[in-house]
Specification:
Blueprint: H1 6-14, E1 25-28, E2 35-40, E3 46-51, E4 64-65, E5 72-77, E6 85-92, E7 95-99, E8 115-116, H2 128-137, E9 145-149, H3 165-179, E10 183-186, E11 190-191, E12 204-208, H4 215-227, E13 231-236, H5 262-265, E14 266-267, E15 272-273, H6 280-297, E16 301-304, H7 307-311, H8 333-349, E17 354-357, E18 379-381, H9 383-394, H10 405-408, E19 419-423, H11 435-438, H12 443-459, E20 463-467, H13 492-510, E21 524-528, E22 536-542, E23 548-554, E24 560-567, E25 572-578, E26 594-596, E27 607-613, E28 617-623, H14 629-641
């Protein structure tokens, strides 16, 4: 707990204060005897704090309005203690309301809505090694294999209860490490009243949801993942907020955090309020919140939700339903400035983390530096790739030759941004079905097609993201009220897909050519992108030293024998991955592990290979001199540690 300085007041009024959570909210005294409360409510006539410490008496503890023009009310309550519930009673002409604390770090478990007095100290971090070295793990030239997780439904306890942060941490960390993923991305954890919103309708922006424990429990969760060498990405939602009575909407009787005009302040898709990004105090709230998660919880990256909805004033609106900017355009200038300021501040203080934009349009330079005119994000989700790829893979193989460009088109813009290739939760909800259910054919073809989809994602340029359940070929659409169907791993087809994803992850991490040059043309070269008649694609990936791997994709359930491809080096090319291998549930068609070149030029390459390409499968080959020995070592270590299948600890 500390007092406002003149500098704090200045930064608050300028929207540049990034530690507002140290000043606003409820803060326990150092000795635990009493608490200081401060809340921004500039248009209120009277503000007080009510709670367990005063029997929720309406007028027991009024707060005083600061005389400095900040609109902040504050006061000290000697009777307040840790763990007690409280709200602000805010009165204005013609009305009053009880509001939760916008800066509370802990909250009651919904459907209860009060804030809870709670300290941020108490957890002793043990992730020093990760924090010292994470610059490499989070770098753009590093491998990113992201496992997207909803904490309430990855795994559940007896009777279907939620697991706590402390219970899920070791189980998830063990599973993710064994599977070879590099990062976990969490659907939003900020407190949210409606569980079915998955966290995307937050009211407690500074409070990890108490459904799974306390702030210190969430710190423990992040700490454990870091100790296992796993980065933690947090989904962050600055695009909108719900209008629940205890939340931010009309906080002091006026549109304080949001725009008053519904053409600017109401989101038609999500039926929620939109932040007024041009109001300095609101910008400070959001900037402080983003940096809070990085500072206090050691988060490694923020995935910013709904960026497109922030950038466009006419997003999901018809003519006449939106207000142009001061130049008459549809760009939200205040949101653009906020995002640029956010990224500048994040990378200025934390050069070893990343910000990731979920941006679904062709807005230019999303992941380019602010000083070049970009928005300043480190990475951007490639929604176009996702839509094109799933559209292609949903087609019956007999028709895929007519849609060949759906697979090849993404490369033509692949280097305009730093892309993440997402197969996220959004693709397995709202009647869209699971990944495996999108694929045509019998069960063998579906499983082969899923392995092919994963192989394609991991081998083309871009970082990789897979939502939980995809790796076990879950049949059912994701349901946030149930755990994943881990029992499917008792069946060979499903355990085969899981084994393939595990091997694919470790191969990806062992071969720099698959990740080191993701965002430059030098890392990719077509071998043949024109063979639509046979639905075959072939290309090279290269690392900084020029070492190449050859990837061949056959998108139909027919083997291709004596298929000719060109390669740059003579000798033996070894088959390092075959998605049709019997251990994955495939038909075991392949090349016996290796193939020799012959001295004839093919499509501009000096040497050729004659290959057998398995049905509905991907091959990854490399020259014998570049064979990744650490790949074999990794596989041996993984299989020794997982003699059965990795179900996750305790499942």
């Amino acid at each position: 707990m500390r007092s406002f300085s003149d500098l704090d007041v200045y930064l608050f009024k300028q929207g540049r204060h990034t530690r507002l959570y140290e000043l606003l909210g409820g803060h326990l005294a150092a000795d635990g005897q009493g608490a200081h409360f401060a809340v921004w409510a500039p248009n209120a006539d009277w503000v007080g704090v009510v709670g367990d410490f005063n029997g929720w008496e309406k007028a027991a503890h009024p707060l005083a309005l600061r005389p400095d023009g900040t609109g902040i009310w504050e006061g000290f309550v000697p009777e307040a203690r840790q763990g007690q519930r409280y709200k602000y009673r805010i009165c204005w002409p013609g009305g009053e309301a009880l509001r939760a604390d916008p800066f509370a770090v802990h909250a009651e478990t919904p459907p209860a809505t009060a804030s809870i007095l709670w300290p941020l100290h108490g957890h002793v971090w043990q992730d020093d090694q990760w924090m010292a070295e994470r610059r490499q793990a989070n770098a753009l030239h590093a491998p990113w294999a992201i496992y997207e997780v909803h904490l309430g439904s990855w795994q559940r306890g007896p009777g279907g209860r939620w697991l706590s942060y402390r219970e899920i941490a070791p189980a998830l960390a063990d599973y993710v490490r064994s599977m070879g993923f590099t990062h976990v991305e969490l659907l939003p954890v900020a407190e949210h009243p409606f569980y079915g919103s998955w966290g995307y309708q937050a009211t407690g922006y500074f409070a990890p949801t108490s459904r799974y424990g306390t702030p210190q429990d969430f710190m423990y969760f992040v700490d454990i993942l870091h100790q296992h060498g796993i980065g933690v990405i947090l989904d962050w939602v600055p695009g909108h907020f719900p209008t629940d009575a205890h939340g931010l909407a009309y906080f002091d009787g006026t549109a304080l955090y949001e725009h008053a005009d519904p053409r600017q302040g109401f989101h038609p898709d999500w039926k929620s309020a939109i932040f007024n990004y041009g109001r300095y105090e609101v910008a400070g709230f959001l900037l402080s919140n983003a940096l809070y998660w990085l500072r206090e919880y050691h988060i490694d990256a923020l995935r910013v939700d709904g960026v497109a909805s922030m950038l466009y004033l006419d997003y999901s609106r018809k003519e006449g339903e939106w207000i142009p900017n001061r130049y008459g355009g549809r760009e939200n200038l205040e949101a653009i400035q906020l995002l640029r300021t956010l990224n500048t501040m994040v990378y200025g203080e934390f050069p070893d983390v990343q910000t990731i934009a979920e941006e679904s349009t062709a807005w230019p330079m999303v992941s380019r530096p602010v000083y070049l005119g970009g928005l300043g994000f480190g990475l951007k989700w490639n929604m176009g790739w996702m839509h094109d790829t799933l559209y292609y893979m949903s087609k019956d193989p007999i028709y895929r030759k007519y849609h060949h460009n759906q697979l090849t088109f993404a490369i033509w813009y692949a280097f305009t941004e730093n892309f993440v290739l997402p197969l996220s939760h959004d693709e397995v909800v709202h009647g869209k079905g699971s990944l495996i259910s999108k694929l045509p054919g019998d069960i063998w073809q579906k499983m082969a097609g899923l392995r092919l989809l994963f192989a394609y994602m991991y081998t083309i340029p871009g970082k990789n993201l897979l939502f939980m359940g995809g790796e076990i070929a879950q049949w059912k659409e994701w349901n946030h009220d149930e755990a994943l169907d881990w029992c499917l791993l008792d069946f060979p087809y499903h355990s085969g897909v899981q084994r393939f994803v595990r091997h694919l992850n470790w191969l990806y991490r062992s071969v720099p050519a698959l990740y080191e040059v993701d965002f430059e043309p030098a890392g990719f070269q077509w071998e043949n992108c024109w063979d639509s008649d046979q639905s075959v694609l072939s290309f090279f990936r290269r690392d900084r030293q020029g070492r190449a791997v050859l990837v061949i994709i056959n998108a139909v359930p027919v083997p291709r024998y004596d298929y000719v491809v060109g390669v740059p080096r003579p000798g033996i090319w070894r088959e390092v991955l075959n998605s049709d291998a019997a251990c994955y549930g495939g038909s075991n068609v392949g090349n016996g592990g290796q193939v020799h070149t012959y001295p004839e030029a093919v499509r501009g390459f000096p040497f050729g290979l004659r290959l057998t390409i398995p049905p509905l499968a991907a091959l990854v080959l490399c020259h014998e001199d570049d064979y990744p020995a650490n790949w074999l070592e990794s596989l041996q270590r993984i299989e020794a540690a997982n003699p059965g299948e990795a179900h996750g600890s305790g499942l």
